Amino acid sequence: MDFTVSSAEMEMVGRETEVSSKARRRRFTAKYKRKILKEAAACTKPGEVGALLRREGLYSSNLVEWRRALERGALSALAPKQRGPAAKEVNPLARRVAELEGEVGKLQRRAERAEALVEVQKKVSELLGIQLPKPDEKS
Q1: 90-110 burial, b for 16+ CB within 10 Å, e for fewer?
Q2: How far apart are CA 72 and CA 92, in angstroms?
Q3: How do the domains of the chain map onto residue ranges?
Q4: Tell me, what DSSP letter sits at residue 86?
Q5: Closest CA to 78 of 86, 90, 69, 65
Q6: 76-118 confidence digits (pLDDT tens)
Q7: Residue range 6-18: average pLDDT?
Q8: Distance from first CA to last CA of the chain, Å, rounded?
Q9: Which is it for the CA torsion 54, 56, 62, 66, positive or negative?
Q10: In whole angstroms, what is the distance from residue 50 CA to residue 53 CA?
Q11: Are 97 and 105 in contact (CB under 8 A)?
């Protein structure tokens, strides 16, 4: 028996086992999904669907999911879904409320500083012996 391996075969083996440095999520187009579903439906002999899945590098769960999606909503269900949390609808008044809350906070801090200054002025006047008019007295 001859166990020599040609360079083309070695290159093919190298490509099959090559691992990328960063894993990427595969995305399939609706056209590709329809093509695979059509090919899977045409499989009649035992093992043909498995061979199709191995050839395409797919899992049986992909096939099941795509079939369910097709049953639910035809073409639009086969389109890839956007990942991540659903975008929240922006309330048009929310921005204005946030602006006003920021403004209220700023004014409250300013009022607190003014009150602190008044307290300091009272203490300084007491230390210096200066009599300040009472709030209900008029100058």
Answers
A1: eeeeeeeeeeeeeeeeeeeee
A2: 34
A3: 26-78, 101-133
A4: P
A5: 69
A6: 656 667 778 887 887 888 888 999 999 999 999 999 999 999 9
A7: 56
A8: 120
A9: negative
A10: 5
A11: no
Please give the Cα distance from 71 to 75 (Å, whole number): 10
Residues in the chain: 139
In whole angstroms, give the CA distance from residue 1 to residue 99. 83
Q: Which residue has the tokens 């002999």?
A: 45
Specify whether the CB–CB gap between 37 and 56 falls below 8 A. Answer: no
User: CA-to-CA distance for 54 and 51, rounded, in angstroms?
Assistant: 5
Read off φ and ψ for residue 16, nearest 5 degrees: -65, -35
Residue recorded with tokens 């329809």: 34
Name the maximum alpha-carbon separation found in the chain: 120
Q: Three-class SS of residue 67?
A: helix
Threshold 0.90, pTM exceeds: no
The residue with tokens 């909503």 is 73
pLDDT tens-digit series, residues 20-62: 677 777 888 888 888 988 899 898 888 889 999 999 888 989 8
